[in-house]
Amino acid sequence: MSDEKPPQLVDYFVVAGLAEASRALEEEQQPRPARPGEPITDVAVIIRSQGEEVPQGFTCIETSTSGHPVDLNAGLLNNPQMFLCYKRGRDKPPLIELGVHYEGKDRPKPGFQILDTTPYSRSANLASGSPGHQRTFLTFRRAAEPPGHHTLGVTDICLVMPSKGESTPHTFCRVDKNLNTSMWGPALYLCYKIAVAKDNTLVYEAGLLSRYPEQDSESFPLPESVPVFCLPMGATIESWPLGTKYPLPVFSTFVLTGASGDKVYGAAIQFHEAFPRERLSEAQALRLGLLSVVDRRPVPGRSLHTRKSICVLSHWPFFDVFRKFLMFIYRYSISGPHVLPLETHISHFMHNVPFPSPQRPRILVQMSPYDSLLLCRPVSSPLPLSGASFLTLLQNLGPDNAVALLVAVLTEQKLLIHSLRPDVLTSVGEALVAMIFPLRWQCPYIPLCPLALADVLCAPVPFIVGIHSSYFDLYEPPRDVIFVDLDTNTIFQSEERKLLSPRALPRRPCKVLLASLHNLSQQLDELLSAPGEEEPPELVLSDAEAAGARRAQLELEARAAFLRFMACALRGYRSFLRPIAPAPAPAGRDAGSLFALQGFLRSRERAYQRFYGQLLRTQLFTQFIEDCSFASDREPCLEFFDTCVDKVQVDLEKPEDAPLMELDDPRGGEHTVFITPPEQPAGPDGTEPPARYRYDGFPTLRPELLEPPRDPLVAQLCQARSSAPSSPAPRRTKQEMKVAQRVAQKSSAVPELWARCLLGHCYGLWFLYLPTHVRAAPAKLRALQLAYDVLRKMEQHKVVLPDEVCYRILMQLCGQYGEPVLSVRVLLEMKRAGIVPNTVTYGYYNKAVLESKWPAGTQGGRLRWAKLRNVVLGAAQFRQPLRQRERRGAAGDPPGDPAAPAPRPPLQRQTTWAGRSLRDPAPRLVKSGSLSFPGGGRSEGGPRAGPGAPPPLPVTPPPPRAAPRSADGSLSDVGTDESGGDEGPGGGPGGLTPRRGLAAKLQQLLSPGKRPPPRPAEPPREAGARRGSEQRDGDPSSRRSPAESLLRPRERPESTASESSVSLGSELDLSDASGGSSGAPKSTEPSMDGTAGTEPPALEVLLSSCSRCPGCAGLVFDEELMAGWTSDDSNLNTSCPFCSRSFVPFLSIEIRDFRRPPSPPGAGPAPPSPQGPVLSDRRRCLELDESPELCNGCADTPPPGRWERVAFAYLSPLVLRKELESLVENEGGELLARPELVDSHPIIFWNLVWYFQRLGLPSNLPLLLLGSQHAPRDPQPPEPSRVRVRLLWDVLSPDPESCPPLYVLWRLHSNIPPRLHPWGPVPAPFSLTFLEALLSHVGLNEVHKAIGLFLETLGAPGAPRSLHRSIYRELLFLTLAALGREHTDIAAFDRRYRSALGKLGGARDELRRRRAQPPSAKASDCRRTFGAPPEC
Fold first, then answer.
1. Residues forming a β-bridge with 148
2. What is the pLDDT of residues 186-221, one digit of tens each?
3. R_g of the chain computed on alpha carbons
4. First to last CA, the chain
5. Three-state secondary-structure class, residue 1261
6. How far is it, in rounded angstroms, from Cα 824 to Cα 848?
7. Phi, psi angles (nearest 5°) of residue 1375
8. Burial class (CB in 10 A: 0-12, 13-18, 19+), 569
9. Centroid of chain to Cα 1278
10. How far is CA 1428 from the centre of its chain?
11. Is 1427 left (phi over 0), alpha (psi -120 to 50) or beta?
12. What is the DSSP string of 1039-1106?
């Protein structure tokens, strides 16, 4: 497990304000015109042509902004000269908005007053010169009573004439209604400015007053600039008139970006509190108006205040939660008295409120009996986490300006956004950098810039900076900056830096983007409309909840609109990425070497070349190419963007129907953690203690009152488990999981696709285990080459992989172990398979190629020595047969002996089940799929040859071996003619080896009770002569066997010999065609689980997946369990094919410990354990014909030892992969190599062992049993310790009360002890005659008669009432046991069985009730894909 701390909700709590070392900010101000100290409280219209003068205290506007004379109705004939006047003051609430009203055309706005008369009681109609014109009046809206000291108001008014080249001044709002409504004269517009008009204020740089915790954390020390961001306009000392209302606290947010690009979010509230006059100097009192200028006497009627701020810092943008918490702390400080100190609530929130996790998505915090907040887990999104609000962007700028800013950000312009509302700046700034996803802003980014850091606006680099609008009253802004006024919805561009027009963007994607934004803006306006006052409170509350959900949906749609545009703009970019195939040059990380810039530019339309040309030269695009080319922390985001690129269609005029973003809402979770308020201490006698904490202002935090965490376990339970320090390559991204889930849902409806889907996930499991396997392998390169061979065979067998994790893991291991050439081969294999690597895979490939050491360009002597070695080895291989022939000649007959065998004709491949070739009319019973020598058998170690090849040289036969017994008593192969060097009748090597005829063999198979007793092993010469005479006596052409139609040859290009048998009682080669395995590659590596070799294993493990349905008590076998699984990767259930009930299947495990205690002194060595016959042993295979016990396997008589049976849930590969990924992520991949895996995660362990053994994939997992609780340590462990794993098709432990299955009865009648015992009593109707009749019908292709006979026998007296196995399963297992696995085509048996059911007719329901139906198509495909388990 990793020792990393879980995510923390709040890192620091900070109090900022006026400190002792704070310096004044006004001393560094540049010369600016004196700003007005009082707001505008009244406006008036005068008619000078009728003798009206400017009223007292008013100011008349006589010229425009550029000095042109203005007359409100200069375009009318006989016009009266009308002018606009305004008055400043603080005797009444200021004006906060101006307007123009067209009478008869506009409705009066709520809250506005119409200026219909002049101060001299004349009409103030601006179109009064002509009675036919529309009446026009000025309107205004006034602030509410009583006014505060920081109330926003109109501070300036001006008039502009666009025909004279005048434009709206910066930070001014323009009323878009022409004051001149006549046909003559220039257009005239009214403009006004809104600001905070205040005087008697001193501004200082904010300082740190208090903080908690006082010590910096190692991962994130507190930045020194935090107080400056808490009070961006500085810490002030202000002089107010007595009785002035305190302004409400102002909430603001800011973002701090570290050197590594990590973001830290801050949430702060600014408030005012009293300031003692004694701390002021005389100069400060004079500037604040507290002393008269002449005699320095105190000025009465004034109060003194300062501005403070409290702030929390976090790595998570929970701005709403932080605002509620800070407001609670502020109200707590100004109320009281309280029992608990303020510090208790602060430390309680920081320590005892956990971060929401997937297990606990909702945290309900009760801060007081009246205050609570709900903390929800962030929405699971593939996009980077940010505090962006696209709705705030649309609300303040509109769709057109939002698209204009998109162009500005993509071309890296200098952007200065400003507003009088500091809480809006961060939301809009975050939206600007989020709208260009997947690109990342690389230049300075300060969404809320303090005045102390305003010098960044003069930087010669692009930037995005947000600042309070009062900055323009203090400083002269740069001229090469684009100003974005959020209060007036305007963008000001200088002549020095002009933006590209939105027309430079791709037309169709831009058109769709604008249409989507206009639609969203209209819906937002409807949403923001206030509810009617007549509605009851409960309806208003429900409407508010619905409005919140609707707002979240609109936010998602707005983000998706920008995402679609970026996907269309960058479509096809992956085809221009340049992979690093040769040894990389020093400039391998250059964007030009990683991306074909000119090719990408030529692929765009000529009309948009200017936009794309500027985009490709930006730091945005350069960093984007590097992120796509190398492994980084942005891989999940980039992989998600690639899926969006594949979804969009550029030529559409509207968005696609399928949404690009599918987010999971964590608020729907049912698990909620309730955090109680801090506990109040009890009094000495149990009474409530007195309330003794009361504050005159926000206090300095006292360390002794800050309490430690109350319950650290609460936080640990609610935290998400941190990731182990392992490589992220084995993990699937969230997008890959979603795609795999969709593919699984589609595949579950198609039988063949479902089987391939499960097989692909099984291979994904092995590749997840591959890093552990390679780490433990002594030869790393050989293990990597094995994995590469597995990939190639997967591609040959058309295995459908749900993702690219297999390739990605191998690429990462190639880079880890310094094999870049193999990594290039893996990439070529991907392309050959038609897979385009996504961003994650591509990044790991380039990292492996770039960081690994490449081999030298010239191999030199190493290559020459390798060539010489190959020549020497080749010559030795050619000389080996000559030496063997010389030895044979020296040991046998001398040259020229007339008894020497005649030359053999060319080899001929068998084409019939009986081994009959096209040129050999004599039928012989041989092992199907083998090569036939007309003159004798083939040597075990001889070379493989095809038709027309020269005969192999004779070799010396090996000495005869004793006939061993099988491991479980099942039937072995029917027969084989591979004598391994038997001598002919004449005594010479290679003589004729005649065999018994087919009729005699089948008669022996169908009459097990009449078999002769087993004979002792005989010399090869006598055995060969006896078999020859038996073959001459019987003619298979005259006696047709009932089972002839079931025995089919299979031409195998490779030798049938090797390490596995094909009988039901031994291990089966799972890639065998009879099993139908289409995706199980054979490993060329030696077995890693210790199953190879002749030494007895330390442990033997038997595994069976056959499970009993709890509904109908029927046995459901492996392929039926696979068919019943669902595509849900969290569902453990399968469905019964007989009763359709859902249940959890189980893996039954039997562990046999063969390790014996140490022998007493003087005792002899323990006898070797019996082993079953294998086809690679020619002599043992020949002995099968003479011994009925060996022909049907041998008794399961393991040596005495300890055995144990356990059972665990059998998981679908989809479920198992999800659990394995979670295990690797939480506890590290190293756990897969430790024995603790067996005891701590047994379900995962045993399922992995089962699947790896099914597919024949190497692993060290079985060896972990030797160190687990299942295998106590042996004081003298054998060397080497090995574990043998056997997979069973049937149940592991039978029901003692149940009837034995037919194949077990066959073995019992054959006097062969079964593997499983004890069974229940054998029913009388299930006699040997009954079994022979069933086999006869099956052999004669009369399966319908066999089914009918079986059903009839079940109804006879003494027959069992019900069978746990279906009729299909009984007949199949009986056929396999009697005729052998090698000579039974299960697929052909299935076809004949289905055809037989059609011939039976009758009631389908009755057949289904009696379980006569065959497996479903999905189950058959699963068995064909995975192969049937090798044993019953």
1. 245
2. 888 999 988 876 667 888 889 999 999 888 888 888
3. 44
4. 41
5. helix
6. 9
7. -65, -45
8. buried
9. 44
10. 33
11. left
12. S--TTTTT------SS-S-SS---STTS---TT-TTTT-SS-PPP-SPPSSS-SSSSPPSEEEEEE--
Q: Which residues contact 1245 (CB under 8 A, 6 or more apart)?
A: 1237, 1238, 1261, 1264
Query: How far, in Å, CA of 450 to CA of 468, rounded?
Result: 8
**Would you say the C-alpha torsion 233, 235, 238, 244 has a positive or negative sign?**
positive
Amino acid at 615: L
Please tell me the distance from the alpha carbon of residue 297 to that of residue 286, in angstroms, as a whole number: 10
Q: What pLDDT sits at residue 1172?
A: 34
Q: Which residues contact 1345 (CB under 8 A, 6 or more apart)?
A: 1337
* Paired tokens of 1247: 């399922």
What residue type is assigned to position 900 of the chain? A
Region of 481 please: left (phi>0), alpha (psi -120 to 50) or beta.
Answer: beta
Of 96-100, 355-359, 827-831, 1141-1145, the poorest mean pLDDT is in: 355-359
Helix 537-569 × helix 635-647 angle, to 10°: 80
Residues 6+ apart with CB under 8 A from 971: 1063, 1064, 1065, 1191, 1192, 1193, 1376, 1377, 1378, 1379, 1380
Coil, strand or helix at 718: helix
Residues near 635 by beta carbon (within 8 Å), at least 6 away in sequence: 728, 733, 839, 840, 843
With tokens 């200069």, the residue in question is: 74
Give the ranges where 381-506 is alpha helix by DSSP (H).
390-410, 422-434, 471-474
Q: How far is CA 567 from CA 96, 170, 564, 650, 1302, in A?
A: 43, 35, 5, 9, 64
**Cβ–Cβ < 8 Å for 1114, 1136:** yes
pLDDT at 792 over 50: yes
> Per the structure block, which two tokens stand in for 61?
């506007």
- Residue 1310 scores a pLDDT above 80: no
- Range of 16-30, 685-699, 737-751 with top mean pLDDT: 737-751
Instruction: Kindly state the average pLDDT of the residues 1036-1043.
Output: 39
Nearest alpha-carbon partner for 937 in 985, 898, 976: 976
Q: What percent of the chain has pLDDT over 70?
A: 71
Report in angstroms the alpha-carbon separations of 986 from 887, 893, 897, 982, 990: 20, 11, 12, 11, 10
**CA 1388 to each of CA 22, 569, 1140, 1303: distance values in angstroms, whole numbers, following the listed order:** 92, 56, 27, 19
pLDDT: which is higher, 1084 or 392: 392
pLDDT confidence bin for 549, thresholds 50/70/90: confident
Judged against a pLDDT cut of 50, whether residue 1029 lies above it is answered with no
927 backbone φψ class: left, alpha, beta (φ>0; ψ -120 to 50):
beta
* Whether 980 contacts 1178, CB under 8 Å: yes
Per mean pLDDT, which range of 109-118, 730-739, 1081-1090, 1173-1182 is the poorest? 1173-1182
- Give me the amino acid identity at 244: T
**Cα separation of 936 and 616, whole Å?**
76
